[in-house]
Design brief:
The complex is a heterotetramer of chains A (197), B (255), C (250) and D (43). Chain B is mainly alpha-helical. Chain B has 7 helices and 1 strand; from the N terminus they run αααααααβ. Chain B has one domain (22-242). Chain B has helices at 12-15, 21-44, 60-87, 90-121, 130-150, 155-179, 202-242; one strand at 247-252. Chain C is globular and about 55 Å long. In chain C, 81% of the residues lie in helices and 2% in strands. The two termini of chain C are 20 Å apart. Chain C is mainly alpha-helical. Chain D has 1 helix and no strands. Chain D has 43 residues and is mainly alpha-helical. Classes of the chains: A alpha/beta (197), B mainly alpha (255), C mainly alpha (250), D mainly alpha (43). Chains in contact: A-B, A-C, B-C, B-D.
Chain lengths: 197, 255, 250, 43
């Protein structure tokens, strides 16, 4: 797939099964993030296509795929002026899910109740990351795409991410996670895609 | 060294090493025809009496073809913009951009020839006649189109946004050329003079309409050269970059 | 050819399967409405757009009045002046809608959750509110400093509404394009939006001049201008809705 | 009138000449790239 004129990678044929966790590794700039964004429908690949096989039907329309995907990455943010609760309520209503669906997700993500109603502006980067992860799971999407989910999290935060990922995968969801953290690679990697530049 | 093997049919047109005689003949013909028209415009046509400066009134023979072919160029550019958004092929974006560039050049020529005529006939270079407003709008749209293109780096994004803007802006043009005129005082531009029988006399019409033909020929030729050049640049750039892509290793770690 | 297929076959997905057929995004109207409400709430908390637009209108009108300091001005000139002020005051606030979202990275989360046209509609509603606020500030202030005898408000108000709608529709679309550029945003916003706004400006000024003129024939023609402004608004809104997806998504 | 006529005439001939040489150059370039491609695909 070429992106912005330079070909990052070509000839990638990946078949990811339900309930599988795929780890995507590789040095920065080799295309890890771009690969995830292409799956999420944020980036248009110059060639090739992405298809989601739902068992009863196949989805290859990017618009529809976006609704089946929960993406969390460093450059996808929530509104600083709104609190975590308000942000998730807003996104939940867009996703057609009850507004309070975000509350227990925030709890699962380990965001302290006292802080939940403060504007995200006042959050540390670790707390912001938890809100991002919670937002990506809002409508229980079958496919979760996380780009370095634990980069800014402390040990406790990583524990929460483990639980969230475990619940998602046990429910049959698919997870594609870009990370370079060796501990995570052993813990989560059912399959591994490595980009070496 | 003429390579006989035709490896890639995709670019058949640029494949011909020796230029095909037919197109060279046409191009030379274009040279002669347009030169003849220029001479005819100045010498063969009788001065247009009834205009303040009969000699200078001949400029209509250059002004009108420019404006007609310019609108052809802008239409072609907008059509390719639509095709690009539908098919997202870089070649359509190249054609759209080239047609806009040539269109801009022709609109400038139209404005200049128009202003010269206006100075003598209506007293000022610019008289805010409704047609002058619509040509100003077209010029500004073309300029904005290229300004917008240069401000976006990602080539796919740049092409998509430029195409979207072209279609969007062109949708606003008829508002100025058709909607507004019927509620403002009549335009200084004579109506239907080039098409109606009793308008211009036969000589003028011949020179004028063959001028349109020649200028369209120039437009098509310029398009072909530019498009072939850009497609070539694309091929060179593509062959250079494919070798650098990252290798992807997929390993099964097992549950 | 790069094929990446992700399969989530039916059986293992019992819990998420139930949700598979549930619409993963609310109806188009709800999305647009929610985005509008969010923009209003964020704006009330920060007052970026509101503040800059209000200040811009006030200073421009006062500056102009001071510069003229009571010199007699023909009504057509006043009609042109008021629309130039309205245009630039509105433009100063309209670009913000998308530029801030792109810079903050929130545009990406909108791309993931809401359909493109709903985003445009939501932003259009917000920009309409902004434009009408500009008009509500500028027009009264203008008539204080440069009184216009015998204004036909029954003509002028519709012109302000139809013109404001056309302005918001076109400027919102252009703002979405400008937000994607890497450099020179504010200058580019004027360069790119002005040619498209030319017909609107001319029809609005002509209509307003008619409304100010106290001359029956001109007033009659102002009605035609209201018609044109509405047609312009419809054309711009439709064109934007059709083309927005190509500007918004990669 | 004649000198005035020469202006567009000269400009036109110059433009035509420029386009003709450009056309030649592009064709030569195209031939070169094709030759290199066919060479590359033979390797």
């Amino acid at each position: 797939m070429a992106y912005g004129g330079t070909t990052l990678f070509a000839g990638v044929t990946v078949d990811i099964r339900a309930g599988q966790r795929v780890i995507v590794t590789g040095a920065n700039g080799t295309g890890k993030t771009t690969f995830l964004k292409i799956l999420a429908g944020l980036v248009r690949p110059a060639s090739g296509r992405v298809e989601v096989d739902l068992g009863n039907r196949k989805v290859d329309d990017v618009g529809e795929r976006r609704r089946l995907v929960g993406y969390a990455g460093p450059d996808v943010n929530v509104y600083d002026e709104l609190s975590a609760v308000e942000n998730l309520a807003f996104l939940a209503r867009l996703r057609g899910v009850p507004a309070d669906a975000g509350i227990d997700l925030l709890k699962k993500a380990g965001l302290k109740r006292s802080k939940q109603n403060h504007p995200v502006r006042t959050y540390s980067s670790g707390m912001r990351q938890r809100v991002r992860l919670a937002a990506s799971l809002l409508s229980a999407p079958p496919i979760v795409l996380w780009d370095e989910p634990t980069a800014m999290l402390d040990a406790e935060g990583r524990g929460f991410v483990d639980n969230m990922l475990k619940d998602h995968v046990e429910a049959g969801g698919v997870a594609v996670i870009a990370t370079n953290d060796p501990a995570e690679i052993d813990r989560w990697g059912d399959r591994r895609i490595h980009f070496d530049g | 060294m003429i390579s006989s093997r035709n490896a890639d049919a995709g670019f058949a047109s640029s494949r011909k090493i020796e230029s095909d005689p037919a197109s060279s003949f046409l191009k030379v013909l274009l040279l002669i025809a347009q030169s003849a028209l220029i001479v005819a415009g100045f010498l063969w046509l009788a001065p247009a009496d009834g205009f303040r400066n009969p000699d200078l009134a001949r400029i209509v023979v250059f002004h009108v073809p420019c404006s007609i072919v310019a609108s052809i160029a802008s239409t072609v550019a907008t059509v390719y913009a639509v095709i690009y958004l539908a098919k997202r092929r870089p070649s359509d974006d190249i054609k759209s951009r080239t047609a806009f560039a040539i269109g801009l050049l022709l609109w400038v020529l139209t404005t200049v020839t128009g202003a010269i005529f206006a100075k003598v006939q209506w007293g000022a270079y610019w008289n805010w006649d409704i047609k002058e407003k619509s040509i100003l709008m077209l010029l500004l749209i073309n300029i904005a189109y290229f300004a917008l293109r240069s401000a976006i780096d990602n080539p796919n994004k740049q092409a998509a946004i430029a195409a979207a803007y072209a279609i969007f802006a062109m949708a606003a043009v008829p508002a100025l050329t058709y909607l507004l005129p019927n509620s403002t005082p009549d335009t200084l531009h004579p109506k239907g003079v080039i098409t109606t029988k009793e308008g211009l006399d036969a000589h003028y019409k011949i020179v004028l309409w063959s001028g349109v033909l020649c200028l369209t020929g120039v437009f098509v030729w310029a398009m072909r050269i530019q498009v072939r050049l850009e497609e070539l640049a694309l091929r060179v750039q593509k062959s250079k970059s494919t070798s650098r892509g990252a290798k992807v290793v997929i390993t099964e770690l097992g549950p | 050819m790069t094929d990446v297929s992700i399969s989530t076959d039916e059986q293992k997905l019992d819990t998420t399967a139930a949700r598979l057929n549930e619409p993963k995004t609310a109806s188009w109207v709800t999305c647009a409405w929610e985005i509008f409400r969010k923009d209003i709430r964020v704006e009330l908390r920060t007052r970026y757009a509101l503040g800059s637009v209000a200040l811009f209108s006030v200073t421009t009108v006062v500056m102009m009045a001071a510069a003229l300091s009571g010199a007699p001005v023909k009504t057509e000139v006043k009609a042109a002046l008021i629309w130039v002020v309205l245009l630039f005051a509105a433009l100063s606030g309209l670009a913000r809608a998308f530029v801030r979202e792109e810079e903050a990275g929130t545009a990406q989360s909108l791309r993931l959750t809401a359909p493109a046209t709903a985003v445009y509609a939501g932003k259009l509603l917000f920009n309409l509110a902004l434009v009408f606020t500009v008009e509500a500030i500028t027009v009264p202030l203008f008539s204080v400093f440069m009184p216009i005898p015998g204004v036909r408000y029954d003509l002028f108000i519709p012109i302000l509404i139809a013109g404001g709608w056309g302005l918001a529709a076109a400027a919102t679309f252009v703002a979405a394009m400008i937000a994607q550029t890497t450099s020179g945003k504010s200058a580019l916003f004027a360069i790119v939006s002005f040619p498209v706004l030319m017909p609107l400006l001319m029809a609005a000024v002509q209509g307003t001049a008619g409304a100010f003129s106290q001359v029956a024939t001109f007033e009659a023609r102002a009605l035609a201008d209201i018609g044109q402004l509405s047609i312009y608004g419809v054309v711009m809104t439709t064109a934007s809705l059709l083309l927005f997806e190509y500007v918004w998504h990669d | 009138m004649i000198p005035l006529m020469l202006v567009p005439l000269i400009v036109w001939v110059a433009v035509w000449g420029y386009m003709w040489t450009l056309d030649r150059k592009v064709r030569a370039l195209a031939a070169e790239v094709d030759a290199r491609d066919t060479e590359e695909s033979d390797r």
